[in-house]
Structure formats: structure tokens, C-alpha cells
Amino acid sequence: MDGGSGHGFVPPSTSFDKSRVLDIKPLRSLVPVFPNPPQAPPFVCSSPFGPFPPGFTPFYPFSAPQGLQSSPDMNQYKTPPAHFSRIPPHFHGVVNGDAEPSRDYDAQFPNDNSNMGGKHDGLFGDPKQAAPHLRASNSSRKKAKKSKDPGVSLSVDNGKGSAKNFVMAFSSLQMEDGNRELVNYILTTFDALRRRISQIEEAKESPGGGIKRADLKTGNILMSRGIRTNMRKRIGVAPGVEVGDIFFFRMEMCLVGLHAQSMAGIDYMFVKGGLEDEPVAVSIVSSGGYDDDADDADVLIYTGQGGNVNRKDKQVADQKLERGNLALDRSSHRVNEVRVIRGVKDAVNPLSKVYVYDGLYTIQHSWTEKGKSGCNMFKYKLVRIAGQPSAFAHWKSIQKWKEGLSSRHGLILPDLTSGAESIPVSLVNDVDDEKGPAHFTYVPTLRYLKPYNFKHPSFGCNCQNACLPGDLNCSCIRKNRGDFPYTSNGILVSRRPLAHECGPSCPCFPNCKNRVSQTGLKVRLEVFKTNNRGWGLRSWDPIRAGTFICEYAGEVLDSGKVYQERDEVESNEYLFDTTRVYDDAFKWNHDPALLGEEPSAETNEHYDIPAPLIISAKYAGNVARFMNHSCSPNVFWQPVLYEDNNESFLHIAFFAIKHVPPLTELTYDYGIVQSENYGLQSNHTPHGKRKCLCGSPNCKGYFG
Hints:
Number of helices: 10
Strand content: 15-25%
Helix content: 10-25%
Radius of gyration: 29 Å
Number of strands: 24
Distance between the termini: 83 Å
Low-confidence stretches: 1-50, 55-102, 104-167, 676-682
């Protein structure tokens, strides 16, 4: 037949018997007919992983490198087949902390900016590479192309971003089974790249006002390059992911294998059971999309998926015992462990959600009841397994403290700043009877005895409104090599030799987004007594990577005074010194090769400070004086320069290295004083140094 498919074909009238009734069936229901020899080559049935005979090529996802395919699982666990995928296979996007995902399988996705997910295992790729039965239609691909937002073009096959340029190469075993180092590396790589893409997109005009989803583009890049782990689905712990870990994007959970569904709330797999395989749940996300009872820190009443609960374009119906609901039902009989992720509102950004991994639960009971819509809903009672570290329980306690429903145990002062900060900082000791640190004067910023004297005079910007990303007419942006140092929500994009902010003398708006370190605290902090390291600092709020925490406030010491009183200075425990030696192995910025960029000054993480800066917070300082040292810190310092009355002032700002859960101690690297009297690699604590008690696996044994 011409055209191949025969669609709309009319046979010649001479061979057409009108007395016969043709039995027309859809093409998908026809049994395939293979030609017999010698007219055509014999039909070949090869393993999807090869080897393949000449003339035959594998299709996606079996076209991945051979090293990426896993060996058969001895536990006989199976992931759901393609026809059981609850999310359309064509990748449009993923839901993150900025939007609420749906548990419904039959979600519709009108355009590229919708909150969509990928395949059931989170493996995304070019739809043209997908198997024919998994591809989206041509019309849907055209719609997606038309509706594509004017963001950065991210090519994944240009050769510049190949895996060989990565700092860490992933083996097939690492992709199947993770560890803590791999998980941290993946999350750091993801957020660094996401921040950079956000910076690029925000510098471009968007006439259509489309939603820019840097997290989706970042996830697509990393998955297409195999930068992920725990791809092998499993019941129980996801190796490398710890109870209490937090995530600001759903894609982060996909990349580390905690919850493979980029959108749906129930993730499951197939196991051997009787005559046929049956689905069992491996993880769930409870984030408020359904009518869950999630107030109890140890018990979760979870609502099943489906029933068009969150669909305004369809009538609400009874939920069906299929897919995720069936998996939860089977898990209730098997009593297998289920990973539970709870979504809560972000205290800093109420429009976003934070996902906290609350550990392993078991389903102890299931039933059906009438929902608010009057339709039958499945309910599942999950109970937390005892003996796990506290996670969601911390969030519930903090919520009660903030609302005044319960008092903070060990509270000494509700605000040790006495109103100097816009957000109170509590002082707590639930360890011993000490009533507080030695007296000091709280000051929120640096005390300069005299301004810096630079070789070249520096002036602020002339912007009359707010400084805009990419506006090269702004002198402050030009000093930052044409880029805003921060994203629109105040997140530092990258470590840089020196960050230039708009100062008090700049005529731009006081709320200019280039004044991040000058606008005070962003999170609710707490000074607390540690078990063995004196007083420490932690936060009641979750902290996103790149968030400004505080600056190091105190008195700037004159270099001559430091030399004259060096013995007193060396004994000062509240000292910050930019001349110390810091860990050069610490890398935080994105890999330019992932975006096809050439390495530039923007990726340089070595500080370029105009002159040494030494700050003493012994008698006057702020919360930064309570941050302890760690050889594996979660905070780093960034030099920031801004002008006031045509004089330049250098400041030290602290930012989060990674996502920090609530009530986790904040630490940074104190560095080591440069000296010729001892070696940096000594196995013993050098003279004048302090013994390190950070407890990190990478502990050097001393600091200072």
C-alpha cells in the first residue's frame, strides 16, 4: 500500500466486494505480521541491552552506555513497567518546592511551564530517543516547542558538557547504590547549576512572563549525563540519604533516589507475590495536596491518589484500588518499610515548600471513607518506626515555640540582641547550669576606625530605581563582571574573588536586590550551649544553600596594633583573619562544562581581597562570634565590598554551603595561621593551635 499505513486507502472498484462488511480494527490491536524468508531477513529478537546484529540499533532508554545497565536484582524487585507509569513519559518539567504536585495519575499538562513529571523512574531524555510507544505525539511536541520559555538554551550533546569534564565520574555501581559522599556531591552540583541557570534567565527579558524553572532544566542536564544515584529501586533506606535531610526541589529527591516520582506522591515497585508480581510502596510524599492528617510527628493518615481531587476540569469520583493505591494496600499486608517525606511551608518563603525526609514508616491499617467531596477515598495509617533520629518532630516543636504554644526548654533570653536585629535571637542552655556567655556588646555590623585606602577610587551606582540584572549601565553590576551576585530571591550564585554590593550612598532603592548582606538576618537564629564546644549557633528555620546568614561584626583591628599586641591577638578566641590559610579543596561553584561554557573569572573561587582584614568580636560583635569551627563546615565566608560617602568598606558575609535542616549547628572553617614554625600536615597539634572537636570524618585534629 502507498503510504505504508493504509490510512484512508480506497481499493480499486474492480476488487471491492460491497456485499462484504469489512472488520476494521485500530492499528494498535492488530497482530504484527513478519515477512517470511526469502523475501526478507529473519525476525531477530535481541536482548534490549544487546548485543545487536548488523543493521539493528537499540532504542532509548536501552541506548544508554552498557556500563549504566544494572545486573539482575537477586531480591527479584521490579520497577513498574512502562504501561504502569503514572506520569506521561515526555519530559516537560518537575514540581519543586514552589508548587504543589498531584498524586493523580491522569494529570494533564498544557504547556512546557506546567508542573509535570517524567517517567516513573525519573529517567528523562530527548523524546525523539524514546521508544515509539513512549513518545509524546507530534502535536504535543510542537506545542511544547511553541510554549518554551525564553530561558537559556541547554544543549546536552555538544561535547563541551560531557561527563569526562566532571570532577567526579560515576560508575554503574555508584549510580545504582549511593553513599553520603555521592549524595552530597549530587545535591551540591544540582544547586550550583540551578543557581547559575537562574542567574542567566533573570538577566534576560521575558516579554511573555513565562514561569522560569531552572530546577527542571538542571535536573534534565544531570539526568541526561548520569549524575544521579540510587537508581535501583529498593524497600527501606536510600543509601547516603539521612533522616532529617531537607530538599527544596522535588528533582533533588529524584536525583538521589529518595523518591523517584518527580510529581506523583506515591512511588512503588513490583515484587514476586504468588502467581504474579504485585506492587508495593517504597516512598510517599505528604505535602498538603490531599486531605492528610499530618499533625502527629509519629503517625500519618495518608489519603490515596486519584478521584480527580485536585482537578478543576473533571468531576470528583471515587478513588480506585489501582497503581499507587494498590501498592499501599499490598504494603499494608506485607508490612514493609515505606520512606516518608513530609512537605511543609518554607518560613522564609511562604509560597514555597520544603521537603523533609522523616524516615521509615509501616502501614498498619487501611480503610475507605467519604471525603469532603462525598466520594470514597482510601486512607492509610502509617506509623513511624521507633529509634530513628528526630526530623519532622523538630519542625512541630519549632512551630509551637513560634506560636507561643509551648516554651523553649532551657531558654535564658528570648532575644540576646536587645532589638538590634529585626529578628530576635534566643539564648538557650539545656545542657548545664551556665547562664550565658561572657559579657559583650551586641553590634550588628563592623566598626571601622578608618576606611580602606585603595589605589583606585571606587564609586557607587547611579541607578534611580532598582538595579536590574544584566544592566551594564550600573557601575555596581559592571564591577561584578556584568552579573548580579545574587538571584532574585537573595541567594548567592557563586563564590567569587570579591562581591560588590550597592552601598548606602547608591541612589537605588533601599530594597535593591544587590544589598543582601546589609539588610540584616534572614532566618531565626539561636545561640545554644553545646556539649563540648562552648556556645554555638543554629537556626529554627531551614536554610537553603546560598542563603545569607549573617556578617562577621566586630572591631576592625589596625595591622600595626595586631603586630604590637600579637600575643593578646593570638589568644583571642573571637577573631576573624583573612590572612589565614583555608581549605583550597572546597569547591562550590557550578561546572561551566555542564552548560557548554568556557571557564571564566566567574568560576574562580579564590578570594581577591584588596587588603588584609582582621576583626575582633571579643568585646563587641554579633551572632557570628558564636559560630564554631568545623573541618566539614556547612557555612562559608565571602568578602563583600560596598561604598559609603565615596569610601569603600570591606565586610565578611557568611552563606550556607548546602541546605541546612532546623536545629543543625552552623559552622565554618576557621583556617590556620600562617607560620614557619610548624607544618600544616603535622600529625600532632602544633604549638599555639587548638584541638579540634568537630567530630567530622575529615577532621584535621586542630585549627587556629
